[in-house]
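User: I'm new to structure prediction. If I give you an amino acid sequence, what do you actually give back? Let's try with this one:
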Amino acid sequence: MKNVNNILTLALSKGRIFKETIPFLTDAGVIIHDDPETSRKLILNTNNPKLRLIIVRASDVPTYVQYGAADFGIAGKDVLLEHESYPSGTLYQPIDLNIAKCKLAVAVKNGFNYHEMVKQGARLRVATKYTKSAREHFAKKGVYIDLIKLYGSMELAPLVGLADAIVDLVSTGNTLKANNLIEVEEIMTVSSRLVVNRASLKNNEKHLRPFLEVFAKATI
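Assistant: Good question. You get back a string of structure tokens that encode the predicted 3D arrangement of the chain. For your 220 residues, that looks like this:
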């Protein structure tokens, strides 16, 4: 998708990433005219006529950037690792913004002896939407698993016998605790990163580079 009139498009998702991105935009002198939590608009204009924001699902940010519908975006490491479809070199990931920090972890129902089951070589049923990361994690451990892909309410799976374990993002751990689950293994720490379409960086560097410099400076 060709950039029109050199207007830059930044892809963001609602929630924590959006809120923690605002200080970066403020440092760049950008004021957003609408709040995505209260507005139904999916394209948000700013006080900068050369920058607009689009609000998309977190898992779709890399796709919008990959195909040039957005010049740049912010996505979690978890999402980027799962986004297997983009050709090598299409997405440039210059900056770890160190925002929206959490971890990808394995959790089970309280009382389930996960480590003993792994030690015995048991085959586990694992529910997750992070299938690539989960598959790679258990493969490295030599653990055989049956993956069950879910898109939400992950904590329910062990409670109703759908799965032995889940792989999901954990921040405070309060949701696990409220559902009688416990974290048994950390897979990786997760933070959000700036991703840039390489063609946009090449063809519109004059307008894009100042924003990249603001993001980079703010993370020092």
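You can read the tokens as a compact description of the fold. Here is one thing that stands out. The two ends are 33 Å apart (CA to CA).
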